[in-house]
Amino acid sequence: MNAMTTPLTTTPPPGHVPVMLAEVLQMLAPRDGATYLDGTFGGGGYARAILAAARCTLWAIDRDPAAIRRGEALQAELRAAEGTSRLHMVEGGFGDMRALLDARDAPALDGVVLDLGVSSFQIDEGARGFSFRHDGPLDMRMGDTGPTAADIVNRTDESDLADILYQYGEERLSRRVARAIVAARAQAPILTTFRLAEIIRSVVPGDRSGIDPATRSFQGLRIHVNDELGQIRSGLDQALEMLAPGGRLVVVSFHSLEDRLVKQAMHRAAGRLPGPSRYDPRSIQARDEAPGFRLLTGRTLRPGDAECRANPRARSARLRAIERLPIPDTSDTSHAERRP
């Protein structure tokens, strides 16, 4: 680095606190000359820390145009600090990472980090419609295309709406909520976050947990609007395929639906399948094949008490990591039979 330049700082932008940052960096282990992918750029907290930790190249994906603009600001900061930018921003969903990176001739990846769910910027901006704590249009889209949450709430039939709230929000009273929504929209379209939250609270009682009764239904709608679980399934499969030998995948999730998919994908890759019957040929084949990955986290990692106190949004975070095994060296002939 030129002595006249200013090194990149690790300080994230105001309003953004990356969750479990120390643990992410420990598991990812950035090194000079390597290539990494931040599949969920968001506020850029992980990206900034990775770029500051090593002289590496980082590709970053996000489908939120606002996140892309934040990434472009970080690119400009890198150019000012180093005379070049090691950050490449790509607009799109991380579930399409292979096509997005192949189109740009990106090399094999030495590491991938995914921070699942909604970003703090999206939650805190009322106009995005993610939070029942801010009144705003009922949108919930992470990007700027496709149906909004208002479209789903006002057009979906009662049975399908109940299924969405139950499957993605794990709302036990989903049918009661769907019935109330259908009755309310018959009087007037439901277009704001506050109105939807009031409808949900009218039929879902509070409990001792202190969690707002609207929380689970809002989560279910957000996941459905953005096809988050579909993105996770596709993104995990592609990330594992795109890792170079020795490359690592680090994932931070925030609720059981996400974490379950991450655990299943990593355990499959590491050969820890909760397989079918031992008499099933597929099970026999899976046991005979050597796994190409090893788990770096035997059990999910959780944030420490200090981080949870400083950043309440970290309380539900869970981190899992996996490493692609190096290709075995078959060139060693030291054990070959010697001729007399």
TrEMBL record:
It holds the Pfam family Methyltransf_5. It catalyses: cytidine(1402) in 16S rRNA + S-adenosyl-L-methionine = N(4)-methylcytidine(1402) in 16S rRNA + S-adenosyl-L-homocysteine + H(+). S-adenosyl-L-methionine binds at residues 44-46, 62, 94, 115, 122. GO terms for molecular function: rRNA (cytosine-N4-)-methyltransferase activity. InterPro entries: RsmH (IPR002903), SAM-dep_MeTrfase_MraW_recog (IPR023397), SAM-dependent_MTases_sf (IPR029063). GO terms for biological process: rRNA base methylation. Its EC number is 2.1.1.199. GO terms for cellular component: cytoplasm. Residues 269-290 are annotated as: Disordered. It is found in: Cytoplasm. Its main location: cytoplasm. Residues 279-290 have a biased composition (Basic and acidic residues). Transmembrane segments: none annotated. It is an enzyme of class 2 (transferase). HAMAP family: 16SrRNA_methyltr_H. Belongs to the methyltransferase superfamily. RsmH family. PANTHER family: 12S RRNA N4-METHYLCYTIDINE METHYLTRANSFERASE, S-ADENOSYL-METHYLTRANSFERASE MRAW. NCBIfam families: 16S rRNA (cytosine(1402)-N(4))-methyltransferase RsmH. Specifically methylates the N4 position of cytidine in position 1402 (C1402) of 16S rRNA. This is Ribosomal RNA small subunit methyltransferase H. It comes from Gluconacetobacter takamatsuzukensis. The gene is rsmH.
